Amino acid sequence: xxxxxxxxxxxxxxxxxxxxxxxxxxxxxxxxxxxxxxxxxxxxxxxxxxxxxxxxxxxxxxxxxxxxxxxxxxxxxxxxxxxxxxxxxxxxxxxxxxxxxxxxxxxxxxxxxxxxxxxxxxxxxxxxxxxxxxxxxxxxxxxxx
Length: 145
What we know:
The structure is a single chain. By secondary structure, this protein is mainly α. The protein has one domain. The protein has helices at residues 2-21, 24-32, 36-48, 51-67, 69-80, 90-93, 102-117, 123-144. α2 packs across α3 (36-48), α2 (24-32) packs parallel to α4 (51-67) and α4 (51-67) packs antiparallel against α5 (69-80).
């Protein structure tokens, strides 16, 4: 029993030190660009990321949907198949930006929709994107009236 408690304590220390060793701006830039090296590291990052870092990873993965569609979707499959402390996965990543200007939301939608239509692996993500976009448009139309 003591060994188990010691092991749990040491794993927490190791996780915290791993998080401190990550160059988060570099990692996020690589994920955003859809660099496969960084997309492959997302599950490891998800395991150690705090809430803010997890949100940043999800935002970066949203961008990667149009820069490396296949790689981002494969990463989302891994993310969706596990429980992570703070990372949600497809349901948030495929929504795209919600607190951006109308032009940015429209550009994201058009760019990402075309990318997702280019593969047969993006159906769920495309559905989330389309549903979110339609809700956003409906909300915008109500504001204009």
